[in-house]
């Protein structure tokens, strides 16, 4: 299976660590949204799309990369993220990315992987951030288990 992980990880490398754990399980290449070509996306059987969450949204460069894709039949995809706080019922940011991927022809996994990550955005920097030490080794193991489930489904 030809797998790929597209990740935007900016502040502390939280999401990159999750992406690398998943890539190890999937034997996948990890790339940024600016490093991946359409041909590579089209050739992949399974692609993970993820980023940290910034003000309740996926990274703009990840969203723009998905939006630049033509709508056509593609392989399978899954979504993952790290964030300081959990997704709220009022703002389902993961659903927007899932719908965007489906609109470009991906068959998207029903489940989304999300875990906490060190967050020092805005006023949180004044107190040294929240979720120090995250993602944890348990989070990395959960990411690998999620990747196995997606691969096998």
Describe the structure.
This is Flavodoxin family protein. Residues 5-88 form the Flavodoxin domain. Pfam families: Flavodoxin_5 (PF12724). By secondary structure, this protein is α/β, with parallel strands linked by helices. The chain has one domain (3-152): Flavodoxin domain (Rossmann fold, 3-Layer(aba) Sandwich), CATH 3.40.50.360. Helices cover 35% and strands 20% of the residues. It contains five helices and six strands. It has helices spanning 14-26, 38-43, 60-67, 93-103, 137-152; strands at 3-8, 29-31, 46-52, 76-83, 107-108, 113-116. Strands 1, 2, 3, 4, 5 and 6 form a six-stranded parallel β-sheet that branches. Strand 4 (76-83), helix 4 (93-103) and strand 5 form a beta-alpha-beta unit. Helix 1 packs across helix 5. The chain is globular and about 40 Å long. The mean pLDDT is 88.
- What is the annotated CATH architecture? 3-Layer(aba) Sandwich
User: Helical region count?
Assistant: 5
In quaternary terms, these chains amount to single chain
CATH uppermost class: Alpha Beta
InterPro entries: Flavodoxin_dom, Flavoprotein-like_sf
Domain Flavodoxin: 5-88
Protein name: Flavodoxin family protein
Pfam families: Flavodoxin_5
What labels would you give this structure?
globular; alpha/beta; 5 helices; Flavoprotein-like_sf; 153 residues; 6 strands; Rossmann fold; Flavodoxin_dom; Flavodoxin family protein
In short:
This protein has 153 residues and is an alpha/beta fold. Helices cover 35% and strands 20% of the residues.
């Amino acid at each position: 299976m030809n797998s790929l992980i597209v990740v935007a990880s900016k502040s502390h490398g939280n999401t990159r660590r999750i992406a690398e754990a998943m890539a190890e399980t999937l034997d996948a290449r990890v790339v940024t949204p600016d490093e991946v070509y359409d041909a590579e996306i089209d050739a992949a059987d399974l692609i993970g799309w993820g980023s940290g969450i910034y003000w309740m949204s996926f990274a703009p460069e990840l969203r723009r990369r998905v939006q630049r894709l033509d709508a056509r039949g593609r392989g399978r995809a899954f979504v993952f993220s790290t964030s300081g706080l959990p997704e709220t019922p009022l703002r389902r940011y993961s659903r927007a990315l899932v719908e965007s991927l489906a609109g470009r022809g991906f068959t998207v996994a029903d489940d989304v992987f999300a875990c906490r990550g060190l967050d020092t955005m805005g006023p949180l920097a004044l107190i040294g951030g929240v979720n120090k030490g995250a993602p944890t080794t348990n989070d990395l193991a959960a990411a690998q288990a999620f990747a196995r489930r997606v691969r096998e489904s």
